[in-house]
Amino acid sequence: MDLEQRINAFVKLGAFLNQFQQNESIKNNNVEANELFFDGFKHQLKLAEEHNGWFTKQNIAFTLSNWSNALTNKNINLWISKYNFNTSTSQTVAIIMAGNIPLVGFHDFLSVLISGHNVLVKQSFNDKHILPYLAKYLEVVEPDFKGKIKFTEEKLENFDAVIATGSDNTARYFEYYFKNKPSIIRKNRNSVAILTGNETKEELEALSDDIFRYYGLGCRNVSKFFIPKEYNFDAFFNAIYKWHPIIDGSKYANNYDYNKAVYLMSEFDMLENGFLMIKEDASYSSPIATLFYEKYNDIAELQHKLETDSDKIQCIVANGFTDNEITFGETQNPQLWDYADNVDTVDFLLKI
Question: How far apart are CA 228 and CA 296, in angstroms?
């Protein structure tokens, strides 16, 4: 199977996903293999929602919309244009996936297959319904994918390299267990925002998307922000109010109530508005329904701090703070070339 075949298969998958990017699916009879897969995929999405309370219909639709927009011929060719795919031989790459947000491991899955390798997938129990069905779709629209995609719930065996994502604790296990294999091991990371107090209402409203999308469970979600010493929170609280319906979700509400009780019993200082608590804390990783903040005196000092802590940070949301910053509201809209932990997955795959 040549590179063009692989590209075309994923473009067809993007067109298939385009039907499911709203809360209600809209069937397009021009999509290849639709009669075989459309109704079945609706069922898989329903199963995913029932299996994992964090995977709401809105969150799943948002994920599918992003992947539909990414998987176009133009985007894929722009992404892969800098690589030489003639230098690698086909290997089997194992992927151990997280399950915090829908299809969180899809970029690794795509990268392995687009690079010409075979993929051996070990999914998270929390996200096990959607990807196998999409893999079947790929095998139908491009039969040469048959035999190149395998899913397992057993111990990983017979693979040449591994991409594994987990917590800091599981990462230590991964590093030991896979020490003799080429690997990418991902640990806990969080995203931060830098505020100056001069942000517009529109910027702060966009920041609320970075905070609340997927209930804040993703590594690209802002879990902490840095503010000047005399920062006034009124504008921030007003701007994020559009997300107040999030408290209607029972799992989110339970976490909000629990963490609020813990903070109150511990007599921690905090501010809250009925669906979000903000607390001054040096940590980068905040609990669900909580946003940490830290005050800064000097921008240069803050830049140095974040450079020192770069292994803990996935994204920096800001306006004019650093060269690699992300615009307010865009953390959950990564491009194909925006690699997790800034590790070029395709480059790694072409060198194994």
Answer: 5
